[in-house]
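lol so apparently i was supposed to do this last week
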Amino acid sequence: MDRRKIGESIYWLGAVDWDRRLFDSLIPLPDGTTYNAYLLEGSEKTALLDTVDPPLVDSLLDQLNGVPKIDFIVSHHSEQDHSGSIARVLERFPAAKIISTPKAKDLLINLLRVPESALITVGDGETLSLGDKTLKFIHTPWVHWPETMVTYVEEDHILFSCDFFGSHIASADLFVTDQGRVYEAAKRYFAEIMMPFRNLIEKNIEKIKSLDIRMIAPSHGQIYDHPSWIVDAYKEWIRDTPKNQVVVPYVSMHGSTKRMVDHFATALVREGVRVELFNLVVTDIGKLAMALVDAATIVVGTSTVLAGPHPLAAYAAFLANALRPKAKFLSIIGSYGWGGKTVETLAGMIPNLKVEVLDPVLCKGLPSESDLKALDSLASTISRKHKENKLS
Ligand code: FEO
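anyway here it is w/ MU-OXO-diiron bound
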């Protein structure tokens, strides 16, 4: 891909990773991703904002052919998909200085083995002049690591946001063309890496509120040339109030738990509660993470394996605990053959969730009539709790 102009003396560089299907050896990327870097040629100085994931560095180096000098490499975020090619760029432009937050300095030295003498740290709100362009650095911790920052170019009204507002979509379109598709991808991205830091993200949105932002250029996915909707979406996702919605991640070995889940889902719908089921054997874990952004209640459905929850149910509980969604209620349903400690084990795995645990429904073998009534009762309790909390 050639470098492409997005503003006056401002260029997109980077790589489209059409084939990538997993990030951090964990996060599904059904639509691939991009690693966006940007070149800003000021009247006096030139800055490169971020780089690309190391396997695709040749794409970036080709795009830098003909660029006479780089004075600054701004590293918004030390994770290697953005910083990992800095050393290769430095080989080409040895006089360049790396600009980062103070917190990023150690990370960059340790992750990339770049020399300390090449690094310049900048404070929150500090500016750097390229001549006719002024870069304002704003520290935005936890989008996505503690050392992250964004850059606002005052003259062009562009916010270079790195992971913040990003989405994993491989596309040859530089700008958002299908808002619905990007909304879903950005929500998935938020759920997977930003949701645990909701409160801090709120502070970061406050910090950029006063800026006259006319374009947001993230380091993954497409550029927002009409950015207000993505900022509004973030405000919605970080809101403390969940929706009248139940998420049921479940796994069933021989059909008993599945029968319970189906009955329970029907009962919830009858009660006017929205429900989403995720069969953990086949589900895209990113879809489950997205559903957790809004859900007021999580109900884990599990068979019993070796006296405890099925490992897939334990994984779902571990994931929910790590992502810290805004859910207010949690319960467990499932089936066992001869006993076990499923409830105790799962309940012990979610210390981060600030939830009220509702009475679980465990049955022996296939659910009996009284077990199904207990599921009706759980659905009714959830509906009542949601109404008491005025959830819609
Ligand atoms: Fe795109 Fe946190 O790296």
